[in-house]
Each structure stands twice: as structure tokens, then as C-alpha cells.
Amino acid sequence: MLNNIKERRLFPTLILITIGFIIVHLFHTYYGVPASDMFDLEIDNNYPEFFLYLQELAIAILLVLMYRRSGFLVYLAWGLIFTYILLDDSLLVHERIGVYLVDRFNVQNNFGVRGRDITEVIVQLFFGVPLIGFMAWAHFYRSDSFARIVSTWLFALLALLVSFAIVLDWFHVKIMVIDLKPVLGTIEDGAEMFVLTGILWYVFRQWKNLMNGFSIPVFDSTPIKGG
User: Fold this and answer.
1) Within a 13 Å sphere around the CA of 48, how many CA atoms are in the beta-carbon half?
2) What angle do CA 53, 134, 61 make, to 5 degrees?
3) Is 74 among the domain residues?
4) Distance (Å, rounded) from C-alpha 68 to C-alpha 126?
5) Distance between alpha carbon 92 and the CA centroid of its chain, in Å?
6) pTM above 0.70, yes or no
7) Phi, psi of 157 (to 5 degrees)
8) What does the DSSP assignment read for 79-119?
9) pLDDT tens digit string along 7-60?
10) Which of 42, 43, 174, 188 has the least CB density, counted as fewest CB within 10 Å?
11) Domain residue limits at 79
12) Domain for residue 224, yes or no?
């Protein structure tokens, strides 16, 4: 079934869906149509986020399939990273644990930063550092040149995704001009949607390359570096 999906059709289709969600969100925000808050990008577990969850799941599955096809652990490592992203987004892992830590240890606001922001970063580091560390090890010692190129691009795209999720979110929380909050929120959430769509298209394209026989690693008696 996946083999029948065309690269040139996938990306435009995903982009159009993303644009559609943003347009509906703007109509909901400024005109109240549709009335349901499930179309509001800034509400957790809304319709646009369900679309993101499906994309994150698809990315994780494709990366695991790439690992099974090639045997290189770097793809599995990236699959685990996007699995965590999916679980964190859908279950609000770092938000819930962050709030618990604030209450449990009475974390105070410091230097204009909310205690909740501090604990949420700690939670993200707790889960993220081991995953990124495993990916870095697999990148250098359990991959070939093609897999390292894919991994490098995924790291750059993930850094872009995180920059929107953290940096713009911080400005969104801190900005005092009420009229600008919906605009900044739309830019933040919309940018995340576009980047994630780009990641899915990129991973799908590389999976298709592997399935079509391009740059498939050949296993021989020569050990992988570090093996």
C-alpha cells in the first residue's frame, strides 16, 4: 500500500491539509466559525494535533521499516525519537510531569522564567538526552554514508522543529500585547505543522529510495567503524 503512494502527490496533499487547518483556525479565532474549539490550534488534542499525531506515527513507522531494510541502528534510533515525540505530544508527558515537579518541590519563578518552564525543560532533557545520545552513537558507528546523510538532515529538521516549539512558545507566553497573542500562536503552531510535514515527506522519500534499491548498504566482512 505504501509503495503505491507517489512522492510528488504526498507533499502537496499534506501541505494543503496543513494550510486548510490554519485557515479554519483563523476563521474560528476571529469570526467564531466553526464554533468548536477543536479547530483551535492552541487547544491541546485538537483536530489539527490529531493530524500531527498521525504524521509522527507515520515517521516513526517508516524509520523502523528503514532499519529493518538496511540493518543500521541509526534509523531505529530516529524511530525511537519520533515515537517519544508522538507520546509526549499526545499524552502531554513533559507538561504533566513538569506541573507535578513544581508542586512536589515547590519550584519558584526565577529571572522571569516560570517554575513550570524550568521543570518542563528538565523533563525534556531527562528523556531527550539518552535518545539523542543513542542516535549520535548510532550515527557515527552504526550507519553508512547514506544513512549519515539522512540522519544529518533529520537532526537539522528536528532542530528547526524544536526552535519553533520552544523559542516561539516562550515569546508567545511572555508577549504582553493581547492582540498579537493569536497571531504569534498561529505562527508557532503553523510553523511546527509545516516542519513536521516536511520531515514526513523527507523520510518517506528516503524510505522509497531504499525500497527502490538506491543506496542500499551491502553487508560484507568489513566491520562497521567501531564494531
Assistant:
1) 30
2) 30
3) yes
4) 28
5) 14
6) yes
7) -70, -35
8) HHHHHHHHHHHHHTHHHHHHHHHHHHHTPPPBTTB-HHHHH
9) 678 889 999 999 999 999 889 888 888 888 899 887 888 999 999 999 999 999
10) 174
11) 49-211
12) no
